[in-house]
Amino acid sequence: MTSTLTPVVAELAHAGSAAATPRWRRSRTTRTWGMVACALALVAASVASLVFGVRDVPIDQVWHALTTPGVPGIDAAAALSRVPTTVAGILIGAALGVGGALMQGVTRNPLADPGLLGINSGAALFVVIAMTFLGVSSAIGTVWFAFAGAAVAAIVVYAVASAGRRGATPFTLTLAGAAVTAAAASITTGVLLTNVASLDSYRFWQIGSISAPAWSTILLLAPFIVVGLVLALFQGSALNALALGDDLARGLGHRVGLSRVLTAVAVVLLCGAATAMAGPIAFVGLAVPHAARLVFGADYRWILPAAAFLGGVLLLVADVIGRLVARPSTIEVGVVVAIIGAPVLIALVRRTKAVAL
After folding, report:
1. Is 232 in contact with 266 (CB distance < 8 Å)?
2. Which of 38, 60, 87 is nearest to 289 (CA)?
3. Of all helices (H) and strands (E), which one includes residue 255?
């Protein structure tokens, strides 16, 4: 029965999608060149991240430092010290960009970001508990608690959203996420008010920073991000089907519940690891998917890889701006992203008039 209906449903789905989002359709050639441009932009942002800082390093010296182990000199030392920051910026930006696209797709909510499903608030709550009651103060220690908090929050949100007769829907996921976020934030504030030392440590973590991360932290969390990215890239077709509604998605042969669970697992891996590494960074997961839709249309098979590239670009550019504006000090990337992210998002939404998912 399903096989008989599938061609008909697919035709209706294609027609419905085209009618609903005609301005988002792009040719394959445009998308291919757009993806190449995104990759080149990430390379350019990575080079800028290695070149600019408190001490600018000529690009030939950067190349010499990277290709010649043990080369002496201040320029070489400066360039090499920025490598972990650049790698962390690429990983975190890609994770948040793709995580935001996944959340917007699975909840069919254009305002979804890592904060909507309680990822940030869950991570923050577990970090505060670790600092206050367990005496955890090292970065490598708080990383695990932040990751665990993000995972627990996502599980609770999905369990609460699935409790109803119709199971987890975009509406119940959004509502459960907002409730868990509010509850976790209230508990976090209550705990912090009783411990001044934890409040000081938490404020630095909450700002959101990728400056000088330890290689041990990067190597510890990078596998989670890589697995999350691979899993996310396989969800593109499922998210396209979910955008048409659960009934049409089932008619097209997709297992809606399984698709949502796999998407949630990818979100936890991506946003949990990114938040654990750098703290909660706003606007990347919210704005990057919208920017990707401008070039690649509403097809998640293109949006997801594009969001990975553009997320890295946004985070690295914001980090470079933070270094140049406040020389010889540095403005943390979370602050810069918040400053430039809001007007960019407003401009994108106003230009496109409406956001199609």
Report:
1. yes
2. 38
3. none
| pLDDT in the model for residue 19 | 40
Q: Which helix (H) or strand (E) holds 26?
A: none
Residue 165 CA, chain-centre distance (Å), reads 31
pLDDT tens digits along 87-127:
999 999 999 999 999 988 888 777 777 777 788 788 888 88
CA distances from 222 to 81, 168, 274 (A): 19, 30, 9
Instruction: Using the structure block, give the residue that is written with the tokens 């630095």.
Output: 204
Distance CA 337, CA 318 (A): 6
Task: Supply 65's token pair.
Answer: 């430092």
- Whether 230 has a pLDDT exceeding 80, the answer reads yes
pLDDT single digits (tens) 29-82: 888 899 999 999 999 999 999 999 888 888 888 888 888 877 777 878 888 889
Phi, psi of 226, deg, nearest 5: -65, -45
Q: What is the residue type of 251?
A: G
DSSP 141-195: HHHHHHHHHHHHHHHHHHHHHHSSTT-S-HHHHHHHHHHHHHHHHHHHHHHHTT-
The owner of tokens 């048409």 is 244
DSSP code of 54?
Answer: S
Compute the chain's Rg from CA coordinates. Answer: 21
Mean pLDDT of 4-26: 44
pLDDT tens profile 296-335: 888 899 999 999 999 999 999 999 998 888 787 888 888 8
How many CB atoms sit inside 10 A of residue 189's CB? 13
Cβ-in-10-Å burial (0-12, 13-18, 19+) of 136 comes to buried
Q: What's the longest Cα–Cα distance across the chain?
A: 72
283 to 28, 89, 296, 342: CA distances (angstroms) = 28, 15, 20, 7
